[in-house]
Amino acid sequence: MTAPRYPAKPRPGDKVAIVSPSSGLPGLFPAPFELGLHRLREDFGLVPVEYPATRTMHATPGQRAADLHAAFADPEIKAVIASIGGDDQITVLPHLDRELLRTHPKPFLGYSDNTNLLLLLRNLGIVGYHGGCAMVQFGRPGALHPMTADSLRAALFTSGPYELAPATASGDVERPWDAPRTFASEPAMEPAGGWSWHRADRVVEGPGWGGEVEVLSWLLMAGREILPPEDYAGNVLFLETSEELPGAETVHRILRSMGERGLLRQFPALLMGRAKSWSFEKPLTAPERARFRAEQRTAVLRALDRYAPETMAVFDVDLGHTDPQVVIPVGGRIRVDGPARRITVTY
Question: Keywords, A to Z (predicted)?
Fold first, then answer.
């Protein structure tokens, strides 16, 4: 396939669409959503425009697709930002007018279940941005994290290389969105151990491909947006897991299936996001969280050792369900310099 192209970037004062391609959670939890809209206006100088299904729980796939069509087709809208993820975006894909999206390319920001749309756009030749949902990163309690804010500004407004850096502290434990006290202060953070490198003896540069592991498994099962394995030769794979906390064996089985399909060996480098290791359903203690992350790393290495033994890997990159979060370009260039221990993305 041809190399994806970067859509034109918005400028302060431009309108940006706010959509909910997965879930209408802004209707249930307005506090983080309104805070995210406020920061888009006041901190980023953008004009957020909501679409009809943005706050509608259980909107049909057709309604959510119609919002995307309207947002991409409107010449006044200069970027499209997801409110949040979910688990139902795969049902929207058959309703999308691919030619409309192809002929009206715009930067799209989102992660988690938005992996669906990001990979569809990549297959249409459009670079998208894995990260930056309105309710989560823009609506973070207390204040935007400086590292997240810097990456978001670079992805939204600039073009060119952007060097990532490991966080010195990260947050995993959340507070309820329906409690006003949640937004009175920033989330608690704990020391982060930096990146962990595996087979870091080379430099790899190529377009980025990947997303949330669970969503990729659904796409593989449904046979959607996954190209023949050889189409990914030389790409940089990036993966992350969600607040559903899939166990190490589940992650291994998904990667094993990717390996059996011939996918894993196509990627000479992998960026693995710092594993989300706490949820309201599974409130793990600090030692349990550390063990959860370590077990996931071991599971990923098992799959690589069997199916992609030459692949370089970097663990605990601050992408996906992490705080702070850096934005990863889907289809955009990623350079992984093992000897120098540096990662550079191109926004």
Answer: Hydrolase
| CATH at residue 69 | 3.40.50.10740
Q: What's the pTM? A: 0.97
Q: How far apart are the first and last CA of the chain?
A: 20
Helix (H) or strand (E) holding 103: helix 98-103
The tokens describing 305, both together, are 């050792």
Domain range for 335: 163-346
The rounded distance, in Å, linking the Cα atoms of 270 and 29 is 35
Q: Which two tokens stand for residue 168?
A: 């010195």
pLDDT in tens, 230-268: 999 999 999 999 999 999 999 999 999 999 999 999 999
The rounded distance, in Å, linking the Cα atoms of 101 and 155 is 20
pLDDT digits (tens, 9 = 90+) for 296-305: 999 999 999 9
- Predicted local distance difference test score (pLDDT) of residue 3: 81
Same domain, 65 and 171: no
The C-alpha atoms of residue 152 and residue 68 are separated, in whole angstroms, by: 21
Check: CB of residue 333 under 8 Å from CB of residue 345: yes
User: What is the rounded distance in angstroms from the CA atom of residue 345 to the CA atom of residue 54?
Assistant: 30
Is the model's pLDDT at 177 over the cut of 80? yes
